[in-house]
Design a protein that fits this description.
The chain is mostly helical. About 60% of the residues lie in helices and about 0% in strands. Among the domains are: about 35-155; about 215-260 and about 270-335, no CATH class. Strand 1 and strand 2 form a beta hairpin. Helix 9 packs across helix 10 (about 225-235). The chain is extended, with a radius of gyration of 28 Å.
Length: about 375
């Protein structure tokens, strides 16, 4: 759609776009419905709140380091249950390392002696003021995140029927009668979409897929939590009919290889620009899946990371997760993990030859015999 260099103006751009549209050379963009756009605002705002909370926790850690308190070196989470009680006690004026170490209840990896050594420092009135300010701000972020979570859950919940319909259903249940004609189709669970009603995905010949069911299906995938499922579905929706294939969806998100080829030579395969919010969540899910044990995605991550590096492996696994989400939502099926031995079984002969050659190069004579 770019014009010839040196001949670009806003008017000529508008004329050129109108000419392309008149000849049917433009494809429609994916524009979600108003309720889904509102859900996007909530999920994106939640991500911003989580990031701001993490920054405030880092500021709290910096203040503790300024007092020579090495609490972060002996606990895994500076705002965990035990460490949070210790930090609140420090902010309230407690300075005795023995008493501070006694606040560590629950699962703490450090011993009592290590805690006492880490909690020996010099805390001034200025530090207490800063700690109280950080703790108050973190508490505000926690409350805001809980409120946004509750609002997202309310948006995704099925709408309640009107009071008149509830009373009628209650009367029918008490009398044991069925209101209306038996052949009459049931009314849709979701009337025309509004800010509190997310329209379900309707596929011919299948019952409509609700947002709760979509979250449940996506949440089963390795590495995806409920919050990540909220964010991803808010970006791509639950109706996969708007994307002709999983390749179109990967291209729209920006998780497919780019094309830069000239004269038969490939210069770069850098991923193209796409939806940054869905891309970030999927890469986060890929890094979480890489830490899982005996799963297909973790095995795929290690195989690619050994050859191409960890960052490219994370993008590749994120692409695989997106493809899985596409098929799970399109086919209304549950996720079936292929297992960690999938690649070994798929390339069984090649792996045998590779291992035999490695042993022969080391000076061994190999004779493979199957185990009975």
């Amino acid at each position: 759609m770019k014009a010839v260099p040196g001949r670009k103006t806003d008017v000529k751009d508008a004329e050129w776009i109108a000419d392309l549209l008149q000849h049917g050379l433009l494809k429609a963009s994916f524009i979600p419905s108003a309720p889904q756009r509102e859900l996007r605002d909530l999920t994106r705002y939640r991500v911003s709140l989580v990031e701001e909370r993490a920054r405030e926790v880092n500021r709290l850690q910096k203040t503790l380091e300024d007092t020579n308190l090495k609490l972060g070196d002996v606990v895994s989470d500076i705002m965990g249950k035990a460490s949070s009680r210790i930090v609140h006690a420090i902010a309230d004026g407690e300075t005795d390392p023995v008493r501070l170490a006694s606040f560590a209840v629950g699962r703490v990896r450090a011993s009592k002696e290590e805690l006492e050594a880490a909690l020996t420092g010099k805390v001034t009135e200025h530090h207490r003021f800063m700690l109280n300010a950080h703790l108050k701000q973190i508490s505000w972020f926690d409350t805001a995140i809980e409120q946004v979570n509750a609002e997202i859950a309310r948006r995704l919940a099925p709408p309640e029927p009107p009071p008149e319909e509830q009373a009628e259903q209650q009367d029918n249940a008490e009398s044991g009668e069925h209101g209306g004609d038996e052949n009459e189709p049931e009314p849709s669970a979701c009337v025309p979409p509004s800010s509190t009603c997310m329209a379900p995905a309707v596929v011919e010949g299948q019952p409509p897929l609700s947002w709760q069911e979509a979250v449940r299906l996506v949440d089963q995938i390795t590495g995806i939590s409920e919050q990540v499922a909220w964010g991803v579905l808010a970006e791509i929706g639950i109706q996969m009919s708007q994307f002709p294939s999983e390749k179109h969806l990967a291209s729209w998100v920006g998780l497919c290889p780019g094309n830069h080829e000239s004269a038969g030579k490939r210069y770069s395969g850098k991923t193209r620009k796409g939806n940054p919010y869905a891309r970030r969540l999927l890469i986060q899910a890929a890094l979480a899946a890489a830490k899982s044990k005996k799963s297909y995605l973790s095995t795929q991550y290690r195989r690619i990371a050994a050859r191409r590096g960890k960052k490219k492996a994370a993008v590749a696994v994120a692409h695989s997760i997106l493809v899985i989400i596409y098929h799970v939502l399109r086919d209304r099926s549950t996720y079936q993990d292929l297992g960690s031995s999938y690649f070994d079984e798929r390339d069984r002969q090649a792996i045998q030859k590779q291992l035999v050659r490695r042993l022969e190069r080391m000076g061994y004579q190999v004779d493979l015999q199957p185990v009975a």
